[in-house]
Each structure stands twice: as structure tokens, then as C-alpha cells.
Design goal:
2 domains; two-stranded antiparallel ribbon; 5 helices; about 180 residues; single chain
Length: about 180
């Protein structure tokens, strides 16, 4: 009797762990797609500066923060899941970059950088973006706006994630494939 109770308890823990992993993977894929679309959690990112818009037109669009998104299950009892730039496989520098992007930051502008931007703007020919490359001498810093990612994403998906974990757990206990 005791042996069968332990076996059933183990089966339930494994089913719960699987249900959480399946939902973590689904949330990870959804977060990547929403970041690439520029609106995690339905909230659009702050618009890019004119300089960055011009750069984006010249190069292939990249969403580098999506490369380091993971889901991580740090504990099994009680079961806990983290999503985003978390876990042992994500480096400290990725975590730092993601935090800066979400909080916003200030970049100082040197005279050398102002000259580079002016040279680049001067070589553009006739372009509607050209005036934005000529930075005033009094400009000492650029403000990069905060781009919240995890808070709006989790606010939008928390209830659904809980329902999905419960549904997947029940399916797994019934022996169905999830």
C-alpha cells in the first residue's frame, strides 16, 4: 500500500513538472514572437530614434534580446517557474543588458561621436533622416526610453498560464500526451 502511494505521488510530481515545462516553453516562444513584433504583452515599445530607424532600414532587422530568453524551473517543491533572461544558461551580461533595456538609460555623447554622426549625415545625400544626424554641440547625452518587457507580458499571460498548467496537469494524469 505504502509503495503504491509513493509511486502515485511520484507520478503526480512528474505530471506537474511536465505541465509546467510545457507551459514554460509555450510562454518562451510567445515572448520571443511578441518582442520581435515590438509589443510584448500588447504594449508597444517606445518608438526608436530617427537615427536608429535609419540604421534599421539599411540592415536586416534584429531582435538580439530574443536569443537569451529562457524558462527556468529553480525548485520542484514547491514548483516554481521563471521566464525571461533567467537561469544558469543566461550570462550576467545578457541579464544586465535586458535590465537596462527595460529600465531605460542615458548615453553620453562625446565630440568624436558628434563628428561621426555629422559625417554620416553629410554622406546621406537627400534623405528625410539627414537632419537628425546633426547633433547640437550642447547635446551631452541621449536618453534611451524604458522598454518594459516582462511586466506587461506577465500581466497579460499570468491567468492563461495558470489555466494551461492546470489543464496540462490533468491531461498528463489521465495519461494523455501534452
Amino acid at each position: 500500500m505504502e509503495k503504491s502511494l509513493r509511486a502515485e505521488s511520484k507520478r503526480q510530481k512528474r505530471a506537474l513538472s511536465t505541465a509546467v515545462k510545457v507551459e514554460g516553453y509555450r510562454l518562451r516562444k510567445q515572448l520571443i514572437a511578441e518582442i520581435r513584433a515590438g509589443a510584448p504583452g500588447g504594449d508597444s515599445f517606445a518608438p526608436l530614434s530617427m537615427i536608429q530607424r535609419k540604421r534599421a532600414l539599411r540592415t536586416k532587422p534584429v531582435a538580439p534580446l530574443t536569443k537569451a530568453i529562457r524558462y527556468h524551473i529553480p525548485s520542484q517543491d514547491p514548483i516554481e517557474m521563471q521566464i525571461g533572461w533567467t537561469g544558469p544558461k543566461v550570462s550576467k551580461s545578457w541579464k544586465r543588458i535586458a535590465k537596462k533595456q527595460q529600465e531605460g538609460y542615458t548615453v553620453s555623447v562625446s565630440a568624436k561621436q558628434r563628428r561621426f554622426l555629422a559625417r554620416y549625415g553629410g554622406s546621406m545625400g537627400r534623405s528625410k533622416y539627414k537632419p537628425f544626424f546633426f547633433v547640437q554641440k550642447s547635446t551631452r547625452q541621449f536618453e534611451v526610453p524604458a522598454r518594459p518587457i516582462m511586466e506587461p507580458f506577465w500581466a497579460q499571460n499570468q491567468a492563461r498560464a495558470t489555466k494551461n498548467i492546470t489543464r496540462n496537469y490533468q491531461k498528463k494524469l489521465r495519461g494523455e500526451r501534452i
